[in-house]
Specification:
single chain, Double Stranded RNA Binding Domain, elongated, 6 strands, alpha/beta, 184 residues, 6-stranded mixed beta sheet, 5 helices
Length: 184
């Protein structure tokens, strides 16, 4: 393998590993006919009760709702007055810890004091604290009120990000969560 190709692969892998990844999961009622219900509206009561940070942060709520509306429209859903589906979402941020069980290293040093030199070894556990954002999108059947689809996505977020980064993170989470619904 040539050196340039190997260097290119290393750069590509480092770029991919630095991208924020959204981990997703879903649960749904397999008996519900999702393909027959294409009109939705927002479940305002549930949104106010279970919205998490979206209840308190109007800017964040607008970003999530706008992105969800956009992606639903791109997939053939329309917001309307006679909905078959009521949508709600919540977003929370929790502090998490990640530990690496074994972190070792070997360091060489050169120094002398008189006749003495030294070599150093080190090992231990590394611990890192980060913030994890969790988005949950719920679809309820309007007539029965039952939950028929629930998608969840989590990713590392910054609580002090610039608005552009917040918008990118919101879009990444909404896209990843709703992608599950459209590929079932």
């Amino acid at each position: 393998m040539s050196g340039r190709l190997l260097f290119g692969i290393c750069i590509l892998l480092s770029l991919l590993s630095s991208c924020a990844k959204v981990q997703v999961s879903q649960d749904y009622d397999p008996s519900y006919a999702f393909n027959t219900e294409r009109i939705y509206d927002w479940n305002e009561d549930l949104q106010k009760k279970d919205g998490g940070l979206l209840v308190k942060d109007d800017l964040l709520r607008k970003r999530f709702i706008d992105d969800i509306n956009t992606i639903l429209a791109q997939n053939g859903y329309q917001q309307g007055k006679q909905p078959g589906i009521l949508v709600s979402c919540s977003f929370t941020v929790t502090s998490k810890f990640q530990s690496e069980p074994f972190n070792s290293g070997m360091r060489f040093g050169y120094g002398s004091y008189g006749r003495y030199g030294g070599i150093g070894f080190g090992s231990g556990t590394s611990l890192r604290q980060y913030n994890q954002g969790k988005l949950t999108i719920n679809f309820h059947a309007r007539q029965s009120g039952l939950l028929v689809w629930k998608g969840t996505g989590t990713m590392e977020v910054s609580t002090h990000a610039k608005p552009e980064q917040v918008s990118r993170d919101v879009n990444a989470m909404v896209s990843a969560v709703l992608k599950q619904m459209f590929t079932q």
